[in-house]
Amino acid sequence: METVPIAPDLLPADGRFGSGPSKVRPAQADMVSALGRTVLGTSHRQAPVRSLVGRVREGIAALLEVPDGYEVILGNGGAVAFWDAAAFCLVRERAQHAAFGEFGQKFAASTDGAPFLAPSDIRAAPPGELARCAPAEGVDVYAYPHNETSTGVVSPVSRVDGDGDGDGDGALTVVDATSIAGAQRVDLTQTDVYYFAPQKVLASDGGLWLAVVSPAALERIAEVTASRWVPEFLNLAPAVENSRKNQTLNTPAVATLVMLAEQLDWLNERGGLAWASDRSASSADILYGWAQRREWAKPFVADPAHRSPVVGTVDLAESVDAAAVSAQLRQNGIVDTEPYRKLGRNQLRVGMYPAVDPEDVRALTECVDYLVERLA
């Protein structure tokens, strides 16, 4: 394919728009280099690395405004490992899932396929639409994504029973916040487990999971793991115990923790969740507003209330080849605007996490206009 060059004055200052892994700020990489002779390659049981883990836990507590009695825990393996850990350690008998994209469906498949649990109650919606949990007999965990990374659908965060006290007749509310934690305001008292990985808003590498857990969830973990065999790597009880000591069960990727700590400091110093939420919302307004003003583009998510502020999905008309547009953007240094691979849509997908400057999103839209005109 012959490259259509884009004039330098049209290009964004930073061309990274991935939905995960996301843009890593230079200061984060610089911090990895700065700490290369002090914490990298040292024991994760000793004070320097434990201090780093403590800094991460405190940074998350500050950023997410964690309620009294809730704890920040962490472990290795990423959100995929956490799905299996939740199936083992949080669900007594039966889970209900709202599945409205690839990642909600994967967690549902984990609990639904567990031989020691009853078949899951799965409330599904087509891609681009929102599904919600609803009270059901025998369900002791209600689970749904706060933000579906594959489709760009965002969900309200609230308890299914609506009483807000964490009791819910023994049911827990478990929310996957992997692609939005730290970029939208949330009342964590409406959840029992709010879990995420660090390679999205928190602009670090994968392979780690983090969770904010309620007293009710801590009790459930102790109860279930005392009565069921659980593989040690997926056992949340040791994860709780080790997290309280500012460490992980097994060796973590220390460079990931360094970048995570630096990003948390950056977010909290600029105003925390309120600042980060406003910044991503500004980017989203630019992207969706641009799409609505084009005859050949429209937001994939029809309901404006369900459009994600951090992962924007835009469908293009059949007359515009989205794959060709993304390929030309990539040749000009603007990367990772391709849609989620399994959706198979003529679409652009844009990561709008707080590390992304809203003006770079504006520049991206201008570059797309430029290419569409010339490719036509």
H/E series: HHEHEHEEEEEEEHHHHEEHEH
Strand order of the largest sheet: 1-9-8-7-4-2-3
Strand segment tally: 12
Query: Rg to the nearest angstrom?
Result: 21 Å
Helicity, in percent?
25-40%
Mean pLDDT: 96
Q: What is the number of helical segments per DSSP (H or I, 4+ residues)?
A: 10
What's the overall geometry? globular
Low-confidence stretches: 163-168
How far from one another are the termini?
15 Å
Structural class: alpha/beta
Strand content: 5-15%
- Give a quick account of the main beta sheet: strands, pairing sense, barrel closure: 7 strands, mixed
Task: Walk me through what this model shows.
- The chain has 376 residues and is of the alpha/beta class.
- It is built from ten helices and twelve strands.
- The strands form three sheets. Strands 1-9-8-7-4-2-3 form a seven-stranded mixed sheet, sandwiched between helices. A three-stranded antiparallel sheet has the order 10-11-12. Strands 5-6 form a two-stranded antiparallel sheet.
- Strand 2, helix 4 (102-112) and strand 3 (121-124) form a beta-alpha-beta unit.
- Helix 8 packs parallel to helix 10 (358-375).
- The longest helix has 21 residues, at 272-292.
- The protein is globular.
- The chain starts with 25 loop residues before the first helix and ends with a helix.
- The relative contact order is 0.19.
- The model is unreliable at 163-168 (pLDDT under 50).
- Its cofactor is pyridoxal 5'-phosphate.
Please supply descriptive tags for the structure shown above:
3-stranded antiparallel beta sheet; alpha/beta; 12 strands; 7-stranded mixed beta sheet; 376 residues; 14% strand
